[in-house]
């Protein structure tokens, strides 16, 4: 099992400059000069500009950005297919930027395997030989490499195609071979550079699903490059957004959508379907006032309601477990009848959600109800917070960010 608190790759202040006058360009970059001005003055291109980030063991870390933003340059720095101009890349505790050629070769063969957009298959070798190629380079003996390659081909769903040749396979299948070759090495880290970009949309979507499934079993650390935001959101546990060689923001899709770090990021994610990403955890507000079933009688519950101007309140037991709702009208009846507990007023047939529920999943639950959705802890059933209907509808209808904040504040006051 991977340890998600363990840092697998650490990139520290990494800069890569293309061109002859690298040191001069680096100085200019330090002085705050733009990529454009540096190019004019030195004919050098800033590929990556002072990138720092950490990738955790077992996570899928996506680097995304428009064409030319520096994604490929950055991922190729991780295994030094591109030589960084300054900064460091640590794999676990060793500094890859300081490795000699022999050590670097070992790292590439054993620790990090790359899957390329153009598949990189050898046309005159069979699918099995292609899948075993990395192992062959590593000097593994034939029996072992055949066994491992067969296993990897099975993992990617290509059992039975071993003796065919790349030209006999569709694009999607060829990319599966590329993936099998990387997996056969059993590397700690998979580097995937626009691995699915050349595939047509349906096959691309299948491959994404398959990668997620493989990942749920193998739990590799994966660095995945894409220029496709939907793909980044679908497969990335965290996403780094790049622009002009700079990492503008790193976070989960939800972090990025709800707290974009710059106008660029905000514009970038504007068209994303928020309702599939925003969760109850982000929308919920804490309700300080609740009715405690063993403590509050109708009188006490009515007093609590009056102090909050609510006409309905959530009810908890002594362990803070959510039980349902009580309504003011029912409590007034109980008060008249001189009841001492609120039990008779408790309505338990109310929906509740967990904090990872998306807006899309919550929307059907609010039709026909007039109270906030209770968010409860999956294990203990404790009430974590409430999601107002207004905030759900706002997210579903995709207002601008400023309006969402204002309306959400208003909704939570109610
Ligand atoms: N070999 C090179 N020599 C000079 N400049 C380069 C080289 N490779 C890339 N660049 C430049 O570095 C910058 C980053 O390019 P890179 O290919 O990393 O971007 P990218 O985000 O991967 O783009 P794409 O999605 O189009 O592949 C660009 O300005 C590009 O022109």
TrEMBL record:
SMART domains reported for this sequence: AAA
GO cellular component: membrane
Pfam family membership, one: ABC_tran
Listed GO MF terms: ATP binding; ATP hydrolysis activity
ABC transporter domain boundaries: 33-269
Keyword annotations from UniProtKB, A to Z: Amino-acid transport, ATP-binding, Nucleotide-binding, Transport
SUPFAM superfamilies given in the database record: CBS-domain pair (SSF54631), P-loop containing nucleoside triphosphate hydrolases (SSF52540)
GO biological process, one term: glycine betaine transport
Domain of life of the organism encoding this protein: Bacteria
Family statement: Belongs to the ABC transporter superfamily.
PANTHER family noted in UniProt: GLYCINE BETAINE/PROLINE BETAINE TRANSPORT SYSTEM ATP-BINDING PROTEIN PROV, GLYCINE BETAINE_PROLINE BETAINE TRANSPORT SYSTEM ATP-BINDING PROTEIN PROV
Protein name as it appears in the record: Glycine betaine/L-proline transport ATP-binding protein ProV
């Amino acid at each position: 099992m991977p340890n998600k608190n363990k840092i697998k790759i650490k990139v520290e202040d990494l800069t890569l400059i293309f061109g002859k006058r690298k040191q001069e360009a680096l100085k200019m970059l330090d002085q705050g000069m733009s990529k454009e001005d540096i190019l004019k003055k030195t004919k050098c291109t800033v590929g990556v500009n002072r990138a720092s980030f950490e990738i955790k063991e077992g996570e899928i870390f996506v680097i995304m950005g428009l064409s030319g933003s520096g994604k490929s340059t950055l991922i190729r720095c991780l295994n030094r297919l591109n030589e960084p101009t300054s900064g460091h890349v640590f794999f676990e505790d060793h500094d890859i930027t300081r490795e000699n050629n022999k050590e670097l070769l070992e790292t590439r063969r054993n620790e990090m395997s790359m899957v390329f957009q153009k598949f990189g298959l050898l046309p005159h070798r069979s699918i099995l030989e292609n899948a075993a190629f990395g192992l062959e380079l590593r000097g593994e003996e034939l029996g072992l490499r055949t066994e491992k390659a067969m296993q990897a081909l099975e993992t990617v769903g290509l059992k039975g195609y071993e003796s065919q040749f790349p030209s006999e396979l569709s694009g999607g299948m060829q990319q599966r071979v590329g993936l099998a070759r990387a997996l056969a090495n059993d590397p700690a880290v998979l580097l995937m550079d626009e691995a699915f970009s050349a595939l047509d949309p349906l096959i691309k979507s299948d491959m994404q699903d398959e990668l997620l499934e493989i990942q749920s079993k193998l739990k590799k650390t994966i660095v995945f490059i894409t220029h496709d935001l939907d793909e980044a959101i679908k497969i990335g546990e965290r996403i780094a957004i790049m622009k002009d060689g700079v990492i503008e923001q790193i976070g989960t899709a939800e972090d990025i959508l709800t707290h974009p770090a710059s106008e660029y990021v905000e514009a970038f994610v504007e068209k994303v379907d928020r309702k599939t990403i925003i969760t109850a955890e982000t929308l919920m507000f804490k309700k300080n006032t609740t009715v405690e079933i063993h403590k509050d009688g109708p009188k006490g519950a009515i007093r609590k309601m009056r102090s909050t101007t609510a006409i309905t309140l959530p009810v908890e037991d002594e362990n803070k477990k959510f039980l349902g709702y009580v309504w003011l009208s029912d409590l007034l009846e109980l008060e008249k009848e001189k009841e001492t507990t609120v039990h008779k007023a408790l309505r338990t047939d109310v929906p509740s959600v967990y904090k990872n529920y998306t807006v899309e999943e919550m929307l059907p639950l609010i039709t026909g109800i007039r109270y906030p959705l209770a968010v409860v802890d999956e294990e203990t059933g404790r009430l974590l917070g409430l999601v107002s209907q207004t905030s759900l509808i706002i997210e579903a209808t995709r207002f601008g960010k400023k309006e969402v904040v204002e309306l959400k504040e208003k909704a939570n006051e109610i």
